[in-house]
Amino acid sequence: MRPAGHALVTDHTIYACVMGSRAFGLATEASDTDRRGVYVAPTQLFFGFDKPPAQVEGPAAEQFSWELERFCELALRANPNALECLHSPIVEHLDATGRELLSLRDAFLSRHVHDTFSRYATGQLKKLRTGPPRWKPAMHLLRLLASARDLLRTGELRLGVGEQRDRLLAVRRGEVPWPEVESWVQRLYDEADAAAVRSPLPAEPDRARVEDFLIRVRRASA
């Protein structure tokens, strides 16, 4: 018998995509395929004491999904994982509700990304500064900071690393001296700080627009 959470993912997913190195343009032959998705738990499951899970790992390897409400909460708070999931170039499943979710991508974006992306990156950097260099996480830290800087500059979130691919993969292979990596990180922090001052992004996300969507989905399910 399937675990209840797995049944929700299998039967009620509205959006599923590929994330990680394959979405960022940094995949190698050894790269895993990381899958992320959003499911809508049927409204009646919220009526009893035992609520449906807010997130589920599996059923496939390297697969992780959020229930719609939890996903919207995270994205409204500018959580990097949630926001980037909405902008994956590799979509594997999309129904009508999922298409409406993607049409709301701009409603989730705000200048809060400056704080959330930077705090996430700072936490990762602290981990990297303990013990020997870990080149793969360092590569992804640089990618994340560059993505945040460009989002603040342009108002658009793009996942592909473009012309920076070769240089980032050189970091992953350990070919870039660690002091140079640290210097690159600091430069990206400074550039993101400068971009935040003149960013075209709104100060706050459009919470009302997202909540209207969520309520309509819940009513339709009920």
Task: Characterise this structure.
The structure is a single chain. This protein has 222 residues and is of the alpha+beta class. 55% of the residues lie in helices and 11% in strands. Helix 3 (68-76) packs across helix 4 (80-86) and helix 8 runs antiparallel to helix 9. The protein has eleven helices and five strands. It folds into two domains: 4-108 and 206-221, Beta Polymerase, domain 2 (2-Layer Sandwich), CATH 3.30.460; 112-197. The model has no long low-confidence stretch (mean pLDDT 94). The longest helix has 20 residues, at 135-154. It is globular, with a radius of gyration of 19 Å. The protein has a five-stranded mixed sheet.
Question: Which descriptors would you attach to this protein?
Answer:
55% helix, 2 domains, globular, alpha+beta, 222 residues, 11 helices, Beta Polymerase, domain 2, five-stranded mixed beta sheet
CATH fold descriptor of the largest domain: Beta Polymerase, domain 2
Unreliably modeled segments? none
Beta strands, count:
5
Derived from helix and strand composition plus strand pairing, the structural class reads alpha+beta
Report the end-to-end length measured between terminal Cα atoms. Answer: 26 Å
CATH class of the largest domain: Alpha Beta
Taking strands numbered 1, 2, ... along the chain, how are they ordered across the largest sheet?
3-4-2-1-5
Mean pLDDT: 94
How much β-strand is present in the residues? 5-15%
What form results from the Cα inertia axes?
globular
Q: Which architecture of the largest domain per CATH?
A: 2-Layer Sandwich
Rg value:
19 Å
Query: H/E order of the elements?
Result: HEHEEEHHEHHHHHHH
Largest sheet: 5 strands, mixed
What is the number of domains? 2
